[in-house]
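Structure (tokenized):
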């Protein structure tokens, strides 16, 4: 089943069950001071849960372009290293605003997955909120009873407050959730692990695909809960993960959402990607291949985030959301530069493939294709010049260096002023027989981070609060930039 069909079937299914299908909200939020990017399907509807305004219909479904690179939901560090977290992804969702509740939501989710998409029932697990008396929240007996009719009890897992209870903040609407996980392990792998408590984090091939939130309580200022007069349903399913399950793959990058981009990147760079099913071992060759694979995943992931953000009106810049976009693009350029030997702009060449592939459903990417390509090309060219300048400066540092250890503060200066990636610095120094004082670098970085965090961002529950006036002081790279150590 192609990814286009997967998306269409989801929307058709909920339309046939009385849902109004609405378009995705833009990925960049211009009118919400508490959130930079749309990071879930419900963001565009949150006011309805707070009782402000009336939705066009009390049943809605859509696919939402999401970006999880800042605030509470920041998956950037995992992207490229695992095969199912992206910066930009689509979240398929269905909502009830004071209309249907757990019975319908759970039954429809199950019907869609097992009858329409035909995922074998024995490959699915679900979770139910276990309750937390200390915080006044009860076990979700109602969901348990509904699931029990549909799935074997040993596939219903109890989840804690962190994973299975959703709150908008310290006060306001909240409620338990039920997650659905899909088990993509081979029969051999399954035989190796016994016991029922297997959800993602326990095995990379057992992946959370769908979260169903049941908003039934209101948390009051004194911490107590009261029942909401109108109950709501808010669900979110990872589109790329669903495609992986339905296309018989074990990596999102092996689905048709990503393969055209990977093929183009292979063509541009001459490097080859190996699919998730190819087992890599401890050999030097495998280690090299693994670095290539990570870099390719980073690039094909990041181009989507950057392209959609630009198409939705967010140009790369030095502040706020524009800076986040710039950093994502630079991360892609840096991985290309270091691991795929790209010394010329290349990311922009992927935009045509993306527009071709996604343009039918998201016409904005086709309409803005030329602009997006040009902006990315310019950014690439200017960052590559910066990299070049940084390299010259580094040469000078190396020349001046009397001992064998280069001060971490020097590396930090390069990084902070030129956006010069620390792993690249370390690699070059190593090639010259010098060592980098990594502790010194980390300390300088931490000080910088503390400064910018204190100045610009207070992270709350689902919304990241930016203190007005201080947004402009958001400077420097995140610690993510030194994640990959080249050893
Ligand atoms: P995970 O535990 O895998 O990080 P989550 O619990 O943070 O996921 P939710 O906030 O429940 O995710 O979002 C609903 C669904 O969106 C998830 O079940 C998953 O399928 C998908 N999803 C979440 N984050 C990502 C991501 N970074 N990339 C791709 N899909 C994602
Ligand atoms: Mg997450
Ligand atoms: Mg989760
Ligand atoms: Mg979840």
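Design, position by position:
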């Amino acid at each position: 089943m192609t990814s286009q069909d997967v998306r269409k079937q989801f929307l058709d299914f909920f339309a046939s069950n009385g849902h109004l299908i609405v378009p995705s909200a833009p990925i960049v939020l211009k009118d919400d001071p508490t959130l930079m990017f749309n990071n879930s399907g419900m963001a565009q509807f949150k006011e309805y849960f707070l009782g402000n305004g009336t939705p066009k219909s009390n049943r809605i479904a859509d696919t939402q372009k999401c970006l999880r690179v800042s605030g509470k939901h920041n998956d950037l560090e995992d992207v490229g290293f695992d095969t199912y977290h992206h910066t930009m992804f689509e979240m398929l969702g269905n909502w009830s605003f004071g209309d249907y509740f757990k019975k319908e939501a759970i039954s429809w989710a199950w019907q869609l997955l097992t009858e329409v998409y035909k995922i074998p029932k024995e490959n699915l697990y679900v979770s139910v909120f276990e309750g937390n008396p200390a915080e006044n929240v009860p076990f979700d007996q109602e969901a348990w009873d509904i699931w029990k009719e549909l799935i074997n009890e040993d596939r219903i897992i109890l989840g804690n407050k962190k994973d299975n209870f959703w709150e908008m903040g310290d006060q306001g609407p909240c409620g338990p959730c039920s997650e659905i996980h899909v088990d993509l392990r081979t029969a051999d792998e399954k035989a190796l692990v016994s016991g029922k408590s297997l959800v993602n984090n326990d095995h990379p091939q057992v992946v959370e695909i769908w979260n169903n939130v049941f908003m039934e309580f209101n948390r009051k200022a004194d911490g107590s809960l009261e029942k909401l007069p109108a109950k709501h349903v808010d669900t979110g399913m990872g589109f790329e993960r669903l495609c992986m399950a339905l296309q018989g793959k074990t990596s999102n990058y092996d689905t048709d959402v990503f393969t055209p981009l990977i093929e183009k990147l292979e063509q541009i760079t001459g490097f080859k990607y190996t699919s998730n099913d190819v087992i890599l071992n401890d050999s030097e060759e495998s280690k090299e291949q693994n670095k290539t694979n990570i870099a390719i995943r980073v690039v094909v992931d990041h181009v989507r985030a950057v392209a959609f953000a630009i198409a939705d009106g967010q140009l790369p810049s030095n502040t706020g959301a524009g800076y986040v976009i710039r950093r994502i693009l630079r991360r892609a350029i840096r991985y290309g530069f270091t691991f795929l030997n790209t010394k010329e702009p290349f990311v922009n060449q992927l935009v045509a493939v993306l527009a071709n592939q996604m343009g039918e459903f998201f016409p904005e990417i086709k309409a803005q294709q030329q602009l997006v390509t040009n902006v990315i090309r310019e950014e690439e060219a200017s960052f590559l010049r910066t990299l070049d300048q940084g390299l010259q400066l580094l040469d000078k540092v190396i020349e001046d260096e009397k001992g064998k250890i280069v001060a971490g503060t020097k590396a930090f200066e390069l990084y902070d002023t030129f956006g010069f990636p620390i792993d690249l610095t370390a690699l070059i120094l190593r090639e010259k027989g010098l060592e980098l004082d990594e502790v010194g670098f980390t300390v300088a970085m931490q000080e910088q981070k503390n400064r910018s965090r204190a100045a610009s961002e207070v992270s709350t529950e689902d919304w990241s609060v930016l203190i007005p006036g201080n947004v402009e002081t958001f400077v420097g790279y995140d610690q993510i930039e030194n994640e990959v150590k080249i050893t």
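Reviewer-requested clarification: DSSP finds 16 helices and 15 strands in the chain. Residues 456-487 have pLDDT under 50 and may be disordered.
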